[in-house]
Structures are given as C-alpha cells and as structure tokens.
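Team,

Forwarding the record for the chain on the shared tracking sheet. I've put the sequence and predicted structure together so nobody has to dig through attachments.
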Amino acid sequence: MNSLIIAGLLLVLLGLSYQTGWSKGRGLATTAGSLNVHSRPQYHAARVAIWTLVPALVILVLWGLLGSNLTRGYLVSQIPADILLGLDQAGLDATIQRIGALASGYGVAGDVQPFEQSAADALRSFQTITFLAVIAAAAGLAILALLYARSRISPRLRARNHVERLVTAGLMLCSAIAILTTVGIMLSLVFEAIRFFSFISPVEFFFGTVWNPTFSSTGNNANYGQYGLLPLLTGTLWVATISSLVAVPIGLMTAIYLSQYAPSRVRAIVKPLIEILAGIPTIVYGFFALVTVGPFLKAMGASVGLSISATSALTAGLVMGIMIIPFISSLSDDILNQVPRAMRDGSYGLGATQSETIRQVLLPAALPGIVGAFLLAVSRAIGETMIVVLAAGNSPVLRGTPLEPISTITVSIVNQLTGDTDFTGPQSLVAFALGLTLFVMTLLLNIVALYIVRRFREQYE
C-alpha cells in the first residue's frame, strides 16, 4: 500500500510539473514569438519536471536508507529496560521481529507479552506518522522546487541545453553502472578464487583429471578432495559443441529461408512459432530430454549396436541446440532483412542468381550480426544449468566420447553451493574459481568473434 501511495505521488508530481512547464513555455512562444524563444515548450516542461522530481526522490531515498535504523532505534526504546538488559543480540533480534510481526497484523508463536503488544501499537503509530511526514516533506519540497523552476522560465532560458546535459549525464551513469557491475563481478570472482587457490594448487585445478571434492571440517589438506577442472571443462565443451552443431546450421538456414524465400503469410506464421522455443522454461527442456530424447537415443544406438546412455552429453547437447535455435534464427533473420535492398538489386543486375547473391552479398554484409547471434547462442549453451542437470547424468568423469554421462562447470557450481555454505574452505570457494573460468571462456569467445567481425568487415568494405 505504501509503495502505491509513493508511486501515485510521483506520478501526480510528474504530471503537474510537466503540464505547468508546458503551459508557461507555450505562453512564451505566443507572447514573445517563436523566433525569440530559445527552447521549445517540451524542454521547459521536462526541465520543470526534473526540478520537481529530484527533491522528492532524494527525500524518499534518504528515508529508504535511514528509515530502518530509525525504526529499530525507536522500537528498542519501547522495550522496558529490565527486559532489554536480559537480552543478548540474538534475543533482541527475535524480540524485534516478534514486535514487527504484531505491528504488521501477523500472528506470532507463543503468548504475547504485554510489553510486546504495547511496543507493537507504538510501532504502528510511529510508522504511520513517519510515513505521512516523509510524504509531506517530499511533496512540499517538490512543490517549492516546481514553483522555483517555473519562475525561472524565460524566452532566453536554455532549457533544451539543461535537459540534454542531464540526459547525457544519465546515459553516462547507466553506462558506468553496466561497466562497474562487470568489473565488480570480475573482482569478486578473482578475490574469492585467490582464496581458493590458497588451499588448492592452480596446477592441480587447471590440469587435474579427477573431480572429487570432499566436504570435511578438518584442517588436513588431504581431506579436501581432488579438484581437477578437465572433466568439467570437457563436459562443458562437449555440450556446447553439440548444441552449436545443431543450432547454428538449422538457425541460419531457417533465417535465410524466412528472409529470402518464404512468402509473407508463411513467414508471419513460422517465425512466431520458432520464437516460442525461446520462451519455454529450461526445466521443461530438461524433462523433455530426460523422458523422451534420452530413451530415444538409447534405443536408436541399441538398434545399430552402439551403446548410448540415456543421460549423456549427446542428449543434453541436442536438446540445448533445439533451445537456442531461436537465438540464431530470429537475430539472423532481422539482420539479413536490414541489408540494403540496393545491394541485392545490384547483384541481380550483374547476373547473379538468388543463391549467389545470398552467399556473396547478403551473408558477408550481415556477418557481424550473425557472429553476434552465434556468440549469444554459444554463451547461452555454456552457461545453461537445468538441462544439463537433468539430461547429462551429473558424472564428473573425463570422457572421450559424448555418448556417456558427464558433468559441466555450471552443474558443479550448483552442487558445491547447495546446502549450508560458509565460504571458508575450498569446497565452497571452488565455485568462484569455476565461475571465473566461465568468465574467461566467454571473454575469449568475444575476442575471437570481434576478430572475425573486423577481418571480414574490412574485406567486404
């Protein structure tokens, strides 16, 4: 309820401030003449709206940061001193949680003490008063800012410049957040991986052929188990390779057919049906692989004298390849349609057939986007977890064939972080080393894709 009130307040302030700035901006254009006014009315309206919303948002953000501590301090003051002295930190937290539950209207286990009910009533009143005070402060400060911003509107006010600078700053902030998020993820993985390598040698991790972590509380290194990465890396590469061999040709050929050969009516039906594959939950694909594809492959192998396990890298790779077909087909289709029509007409004018035009003109022109689609699909395959959990067999053994059960890096991360984890031993810290390995693999894929794109783009240009 409080969130709806805050959202409603911000929407009312936004509409009121924008309309106020728009009206005065239009009035300036009428009285002073449009040639004598620096900025259009919408820029004046946007400037007033920004001036109005920023103070309100500052008040709300400050309360969001400080409100919980103030509320906790007030609640502690409502607990009698004699009871408060007899509580340790855990007991105090439990008491505060009970009082908060009573104030929210939820029941609590056991008998309610009189001081708990009294503190809950006081807390309810305190929350109501502080919420109304924050809303009033935000609305009042926003109205003052609105009046000030409106009073500054004049024919020569550079409202457009102000708004565009603010929008530029906002775009830069969004870009910085994206970059800093990536850097933060990388640093967290690196620091925790360094802690892991203080227990396990990097040589043993990157070149070991046995994966057998042992959950032991003793300090003896021999009880840590074995953390060889090669079985997991091999399984990951098997699954990613098989899925790519399935998805890339099918997805690319589908895109070529839909963009160059299919009638508009067929395209309108087929493309949405293919894109539905991307919306199916991965757990459904996992069940499909486990119940249908795995037994089918096993029966097919038995019919030709080939031993294929129902849960194997082949099963997981085939189903994952089906899952990522839309990533390649939809993106490649959109990219092929963006190639200028004049390039195709020029090829036809030189006597090239449609297939020659596709091979020698469309595909080279669309290669950067197609490589991007392929990269997205492969990254999706490398990072997939649920299908591999159900269909690959969860067997972290170094295999030379995809016909047997395997395990992947993502599955092992899930296994190591399942249950209680304190991140003090290699059993849980290994998840960060595995995550860092996936990060580096994806980075190398990006580097290779960028090299291919630049090389072929230069040749084509």
